[in-house]
Amino acid sequence: MEQIYDEDLATIDVDDVTVTVTLDFDNLSDLNENLPRMFENDPDGALHNLEIIGCERAVEQGLIESDEIKYTNLVVETEQDGKRVDELKTADHDRLVQIDATVEQVYAKKPITIDTVWRCVVCGTRHSVSQYTVDGQIDKPHSCVSEDCNNTAQSKFKIIEEEEVEQTRQLIKLSDDATADRQGEDILTHLYPPLLDSVEVGETVTVTAIPRTYREQKNDAVKERELVALGIDNEQESIEVSDEERERFEEIVESGDAEDLLLESLAPHIVGEEIEDFKQGVLAAVVSGDVEWMDRSDMNIIGIGSPAVGKTKILEFVEESVNRSKMVEGSGSSKAGLLGFAKEDETKGGWYAHSGPFFRYRDVMMDEVADMNPEEMQGMKSALEHQSYSITSGGVDQELTTTGSFIGASNPIDGKFNEHEALDDQFNFDPALLSRFGLIYIIQDNQDEETDKQKATAMMTRWQEAAADETDHDRLTKTEFGKFVEYLKESEPSPPSEDVVEFVASEFASLRADDSDHIDLRKLPTIMRLATVFARLNGHDQIEKQDMTRGAEMLIDSVNRLDEANIDKSVLWTGENSEQTEAKERVVDAVDTLHHADDDDPTRTEVEKRIVMNHQLDQETVRWAIESRLEDDALYEGDDGVLHTTKN
What phi and psi values does residue 163 have, to the nearest 5 degrees? Predict the structure, then answer.
């Protein structure tokens, strides 16, 4: 133990009446390969001895007098990866562990008794009792230590109040990110100085701690666990860009090759014309954002395509390379809680807002978006448009907010596009949700001998590189890709000049004149977001004409591909398809007509019947239209169930 201090693997800090010992756990094996195992298997004994020596050294060095020491704290520093809360086992009890989790709740700090002095009322002997710091309950002596006293009754010991030693404790709740096959668990964690107030709700942390069993239920059958934290690493995992790498990236940008190199390096073994377009959209999404002068500068994109074209592999590449990114499954979103939900606090009572991955990460990717449950899909409309989501249930009223991009992918209804059916009939998306995406890609797996040969060659090359443990030096590695993205996002191009604004306005007017059905003012923000991306890729400090032009071209290309796929463009501008728009108009007309008829009142049933019969519109669409008109106050419903227009 002395050598640990001699080699600076443990340091001492004295603050007033507190001695804090900080242990460098990761380098213990340099001194003795068995030391880490000793601290892991018997942390109480090993850390207690380390603590005693630390206090002795603090006194020897004149940092504090021995009778002044009231508190001793232990901090264990490590960068080791942790396990999930739901991976804790019985064998981990009273051992040193690392846990990776998200801070779910932070409770108020409270003083607890950690040492007490008792007096035996029979003989007057004093007893010092260290308290079990996990449950905070005060333990009395079980028997008098005096050889001449036979007192074994706990009721005959009195605490000497003025000699209690108290220390401030803070509870936090840690939770796992739920996945498609794991609900995730949470666990209470005890913080003591100097870890108090060291975390915030929503942070992802690695906690070095000792699991304790702190309380048994009344039936003595269930034991609950809590953690006593000894160290917390809550620094966001950041990507450090060295000066040498920064110079290299700057040269690439100045050469004009940044976009091509990043596209070539993004999931390089996934090839094909249509998937390459989707990759360009993904690149735009991860490079977008962090522009303060824009209300919102992040991109939302989605790719809808046949399976096995590589959509999932592209999303996985982003998760593995781009900082603070997370991939989730649409089929598991209801279980995992993509957005968040009100959760009961079993420890303190009441309810609190549980934030999902959408609000914990910068860039979120979702595979199989269409598999989300209807409730979550409804919430996504607000989350994608406003980057916020309100939780109002269980007495909770809280708005969650975020900044970042959303990248979605999904398959057609039948798993694969059928070339003999209209494409817009082959995927099931709420039009209002689809309208929240700035770029939409339809990705078909069409048979073409030359293209198929190219795809197969790319796949074989990947296996060859893996077997040879080599990479193509003309491409960026995943780590380099992530660093390049971080480097680009450091720059914040300023808004375009008046000349560029005038140019864009003229171009927009020309586009509207040529194709007013496809271009709408509501898409100008998408063009501006894309322009900031191209300004970064081109190394421009201010958005220039060519950046705006590239942004417009990219948007128009996405829209044109929807046109080729026979997708109803009105979805993009209004969040409604043409049938829904028609149904809303027909509903108001039907209510007016029925009010002038002598035989029928315009109830919901009569309105539905008339429109379905006369205009061959889908009954579900008509029902949706009635609800929509009631929401926008074009209609209201009387107590008798009769519908009225606002002009009736």
Answer: -110, 10
Q: Which of 105-114, 423-432, 506-515 has the highest mean pLDDT?
A: 105-114
Report which of 73, 100, 114 is spatially closest to residue 189, judged by C-alpha positions.
Answer: 100
pLDDT tens column, 499-552: 998 888 887 777 767 655 556 677 788 889 999 999 999 999 999 999 999 998
Cα-based distances in Å from 292 to 226, 238, 491: 42, 21, 11
Whole-angstrom Cα distance, residue 174 to residue 85?
Answer: 8
Assigned architecture for domain 243-564? 3-Layer(aba) Sandwich (3.40)
Contacts of 614 (CB under 8 A, 6+ apart): none
The CA-atom distances, in angstroms, between 46 and each of 51, 95, 232, 298, 464 are 9, 11, 20, 50, 49
Average pLDDT (389-409) is 83
The whole-angstrom distance between residue 176's C-alpha and the CA centroid of its chain comes to 12
Helix 273-287 with 524-538: angle, nearest 10 deg: 90
Say whether pLDDT at 253 is over 90.
yes
pTM of the shown model: 0.68
Q: Which of 569, 459, 450, 550 is nearest to 500 (CA)?
A: 550
Measured at the CA of 407, the angle between CA 405 and CA 412, to 5 degrees, comes to 155
Helices 243-255/258-265 angle, 10° precision: 110
**Domain ranges across the chain:** 2-77, 85-233, 243-564, 577-645
Q: Look at residue 587 in the predicted model and tell me its pLDDT.
A: 82
- Residue that has been written with the tokens 């850390």 in this structure: 47
| Whole-number Å distance between alpha carbons of 610 and 393 | 39
β-bridge partners, 116: 129
Tell me how far apart the alpha carbons of residues 30 and 133 are, in angstroms, rounded to a whole number: 32
The DSSP string of 99-160 is: EEEEEEEEPPPEEEEEEEEEEETTT--EEEEE--TTT-PPPPPSS---TT-----GGGEEE-
- Per the structure block, which two tokens stand in for 568? 């109803």
Non-local CB neighbours of 359 within 8 Å, separated by 6+ positions? 202, 339, 340, 389, 400, 401, 402
Instruction: With beta carbons less than 8 A apart as the criterion, state whether 611 and 622 touch.
Output: yes
Average pLDDT of 87-107?
85
Q: In what order do the strands lie in the sheet with 325-329?
A: 325-329, 363-367, 406-410, 300-305, 439-443
In whole angstroms, how large is the CA radius of gyration of the chain?
Answer: 32
**Chain segment 274-320, per-residue pLDDT in tens:** 788 999 999 999 999 989 999 889 999 998 877 778 888 999 999 99
Is 1.10.10.10 the CATH number for 577-645? yes
Please report, rounded to a whole number, the percentage of residues in the chain having pLDDT higher than 90: 15
CATH architecture of 85-233: Beta Barrel (2.40)
**Do 452 and 309 touch, CB atoms closer than 8 A?**
no
